[in-house]
């Protein structure tokens, strides 16, 4: 495991001064969330009964206890479809040449577009912004790699930073970071206790990723924001009538790691152009052969 | 587009509410970018501009043919627009001009947002084809013309759609627009075929990798046949031969199919009977999950426990296995 994450200071620091960023009213975000729980797209995950110290009880920045007792409700979203998918559906995919993804899990998700209705204050978890955050017992500050690129086993510690920042900065609405698997786009976690109804507006019907009812076969092949080489496609798996999210790039010279990792996370490079080995850099796990 | 020779394009036709007008390309392009111009004066009312390629036949200005070409271009652009799933634009004047191009529809391009004259000159280069200024096509007019309305996300945005090749031939021998890029109808025939082929390749590769994974699983995880389950069973039930299928039916164990045989991974059993934790895990998994899904969960390094496999915890910490199964079967619960 290349990165460990140290724990945040146990107590909030009311004198903390940080450079925050605004997510402007009108910004559109995408949120992947549970299909089976049936809660609305603009409602926060209450994190009820979840424990900060159990790795699988949440994700990178949830759950964490609020003051005084229950967990702070949270919501993850991102500004592009791949960023949103990578930091939710594919958040467990490991950083290895042939990561696998169990397709069974796709069924658990759907996504909605959300519109931000007021300016939101977030802290960008990138090294320039993290320099002011001291780590107890060591001279160097907390780093982006430790917070964002560390594996799932570090979640009990990464969550302590969400708790620390939430407690120290009473006006903070959430955190922002570059997706671990892609490095482009922005991912967010928002703190539910800083929001009121109407701060986020959701489109009426979520989109499934597992079944074809809402998505036409060749519908989504599009340029993503300002990153022309990142594309995402949601299309039907030809054999077993399930659906699959795919991302690929079209520029063979567009770099190696982030895009390849993105492809791997989504299960494929669609074109063979920039593949150097006949071995596919992924293993996706279909249900039936 | 950088090499486009403007001089090679002799002329353009501007479609306006009152009719058509033939202009030089430069003046016609001014009408195109007018709807995207930041702080620009009123942008006129032109619906579209047809830019001709001199390599094609010299255009005969004809209002009906121009209109028909325009309609066709609109439908093509509309179709591509509806395929663009991930597009966000705050609609504010501060957001810079975006150019949207699409890999599988490379003859259609969209310019969204406002920009200065200088930027527009750089980004919106004239090339043969049809430019459509959506700002001047209101919903009522589109309805009358039997044209589909723009997808909601693209309404009320400064938007110009550019279709570089209009593919249908026109009766009478002359193409109003010289087909410059894509021969053939990319949208209707070529595209699904290309997608289909790539998808099949991917399917095949996934199947290969999955098979490889299963072989690896079978090599490192011994399994019993139903006869072996019965033989190893310490159960005192009367019908011992059918014990495996009974446990399977009762969801106390799971089976995987490998090389045509029903196999029961041995890690499910302790002292000849199913470990209770197996039943708990099966219960957590959704109805549609197969034995292979369960096998995958149990035998794959799990990042929540530092890359160890859940089977390593079956004896020492079954409660943790259940907790890991919850997260695996319902991954979205954390979000």
Structural summary, described in words:
The complex is a heterodimer of chains A (289) and B (335). Chain A is α+β, with helices and mostly antiparallel strands and 289 residues long. Chain A has five helices and 14 strands. A five-stranded mixed beta sheet of chain A has the order 1-6-7-8-3. In chain A, strands 2, 5, 9 and 10 form a four-stranded antiparallel beta sheet that branches. Chain A is globular. Chain A starts with 20 loop residues before the first strand and ends with a strand. Mean pLDDT of chain A is 75; it is low at 211-289. By secondary structure, chain B is of the alpha+beta class. Chain B has two domains: 6-184, no CATH class; 221-334, no CATH class. Helices cover 37% and strands 14% of the residues of chain B. In chain B, the strands form three sheets. Chain B has a seven-stranded antiparallel beta sheet, with helices on both faces. In chain B, helix 8 (276-284) runs parallel beside helix 10 (318-329). The longest helix of chain B is centred in the middle third of the chain and has 35 residues, at 186-220. The radius of gyration of chain B is 32 Å and the shape is elongated. In chain B, 40% of the residues are buried. Residues 1-7 and 167-195 of chain B have low confidence and may be disordered. The chains are: A alpha+beta (289), B alpha+beta (335).
């Amino acid at each position: 495991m290349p990165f460990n994450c140290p724990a945040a200071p146990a107590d909030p620091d009311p004198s903390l001064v940080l450079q925050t960023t605004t997510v402007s009213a009108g910004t559109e975000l995408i949120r992947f969330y549970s299909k089976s729980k049936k809660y609305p797209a603009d409602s926060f995950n209450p994190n009820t009964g979840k424990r900060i110290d159990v790795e699988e009880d949440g994700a990178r920045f949830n759950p964490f206890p609020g003051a005084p007792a229950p967990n702070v409700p949270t919501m993850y979203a991102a500004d592009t479809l791949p960023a949103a998918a990578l930091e939710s559906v594919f958040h467990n995919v490991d950083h290895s040449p042939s990561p696998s993804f169990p397709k069974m899990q796709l069924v658990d998700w759907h996504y909605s577009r959300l519109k931000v209705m007021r300016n939101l204050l977030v802290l960008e978890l990138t090294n320039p912004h993290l320099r002011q955050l001291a780590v107890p017992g060591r001279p160097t500050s907390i780093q982006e790699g430790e917070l964002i690129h560390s594996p799932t086993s570090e979640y009990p510690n990464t969550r302590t930073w969400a708790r620390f920042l939430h407690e120290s900065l009473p006006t903070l609405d959430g955190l922002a970071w570059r997706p671990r698997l892609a490095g482009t786009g922005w991912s967010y976690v928002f703190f539910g206790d800083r929001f009121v109804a109407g701060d986020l507006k959701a489109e009426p019907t979520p989109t499934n990723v597992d079944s074809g009812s809402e998505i036409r076969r060749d519908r989504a092949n599009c340029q993503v924001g300002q990153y022309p080489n990142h594309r995402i496609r949601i299309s039907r798996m030809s054999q077993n009538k399930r659906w699959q999210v795919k991302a690929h790039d079209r520029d063979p010279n567009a770099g190696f790691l982030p895009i390849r990792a993105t492809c791997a996370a989504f299960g494929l490079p669609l074109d063979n152009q920039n593949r150097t080995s006949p071995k596919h850099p992924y293993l996706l796990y279909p249900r039936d052969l | 587009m950088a090499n486009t020779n403007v001089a090679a394009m002799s002329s353009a036709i501007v479609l306006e509410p009152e009719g058509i007008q033939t202009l030089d390309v430069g003046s016609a392009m001014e009408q195109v970018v007018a709807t995207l111009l930041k702080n620009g004066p009123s942008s006129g009312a032109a619906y579209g501009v047809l830019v001709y390629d001199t390599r094609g036949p010299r255009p005969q200005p004809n209002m009906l043919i121009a209109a028909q070409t325009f309609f066709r271009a609109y439908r093509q652009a509309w179709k591509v627009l509806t395929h663009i799933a991930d597009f966000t634009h705050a609609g504010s004047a501060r957001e810079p001009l975006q150019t949207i191009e699409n890999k599988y529809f490379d003859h259609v391009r969209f310019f969204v947002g406002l920009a200065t004259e200088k930027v527009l000159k750089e980004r919106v280069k004239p090339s043969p084809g049809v430019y459509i200024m959506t700002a001047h096509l209101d919903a009522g007019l589109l309805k009358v013309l039997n044209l589909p309305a723009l997808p909601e996300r693209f309404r009320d945005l400064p938007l110009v759609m550019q279709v570089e090749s209009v593919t249908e031939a026109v009766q009478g021998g002359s193409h109003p627009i010289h087909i410059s890029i894509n021969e053939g109808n990319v949208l209707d025939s070529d595209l699904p075929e290309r997608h289909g082929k790539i998808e099949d390749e991917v399917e095949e590769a996934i199947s290969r990798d999955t098979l490889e994974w299963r072989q690896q699983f079978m090599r490192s995880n011994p399994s019993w046949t139903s006869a072996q389950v019965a033989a190893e069973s310490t159960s005192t039930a009367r019908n011992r031969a059918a014990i495996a299928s009974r446990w399977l039916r009762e969801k106390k164990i799971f089976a995987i199919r490998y090389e045509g045989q029903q196999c029961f991974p041995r890690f499910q059993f302790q002292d000849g009977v199913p470990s209770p934790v197996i039943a708990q895990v099966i219960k957590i998994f959704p109805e549609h999950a197969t034995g292979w899904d369960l096998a995958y969960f149990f035998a794959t390094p799990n990042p929540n426990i530092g890359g160890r496999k859940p089977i390593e915890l079956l004896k020492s910490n079954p409660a943790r296995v259940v907790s890991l199964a919850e997260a695996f079967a319902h991954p979205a619960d954390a979000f």
